[in-house]
Amino acid sequence: MFRILVAEDDKGIRALMEDALTDAGYEPILACNGLEALDVLEKSILI
Description:
Blueprint: E1 3-7, H1 11-23, E2 27-31, H2 34-46
Parallel strand pairs: 1-2
């Protein structure tokens, strides 16, 4: 399964993207802003 990092500050759009990506067979990873996205990305590379 492919993982996709979503960085979106709008909670509703983030939830919509999460649902759409999950329904399409992807594993969305969510972040509220760019800094959080970089932190999530850094942690996911190390795992």
